[in-house]
Structures are given as structure tokens and as C-alpha cells.
Amino acid sequence: MFYTYIIRSKKEGKWYTGYTSDLRKRFKEHNDNKMILTKGRGPFELIYYEACLNKYDALIREKYLKTGMGKRYIKNRLKRFLSLTGEAT
Description:
- By secondary structure, this protein is of the alpha+beta class.
- The chain is built from four helices and three strands.
- The protein has helices at about 25-30, 55-65, 70-75, 80-85, and strands at about 1-10, 15-20, 45-50.
């Protein structure tokens, strides 16, 4: 399995989207400052993930979630969560 995921920086509130074959390991790497893009921006919380059967599907899904339509999809999908955290738009 491959996973497309979204993490949120508790420090900055910014969201980061990625994909991996080992979600637990990748999440730990983000929080341990081992990922260049998110280094020094943690701690992070995992706010969303999807499982895919292959790497290609996970990569395509990651790219979609980074588009305007993908961001709208996630905000709609997480509407209740965002309203509880005060981020609803």
C-alpha cells in the first residue's frame, strides 16, 4: 500500500501534502526534522490520509490534492474538523 497524507504544523498552522509507502515512518521523519521541506516547522499532526494500491495512484492523488480543486475537496472533507480547530473558512 501507498499513502497520500496531509500533515499540519502545530507551530505555523501550514499544511503539507505528500505520499509514502510507510506512513508511520514518514510521519516520524517529519517530526524528527529529517525531511528537508518541513525541517524546523514541527511538531506536526496527521490530519488526513488515503490508502492507494500502488505508488502511481498515490502520486497522482498527491498532485491533485495540491491543486485548487484538491484543496477545496480537502477543506470540504475536513469541514467539521476545521470548525473544531477554528480554521473553517
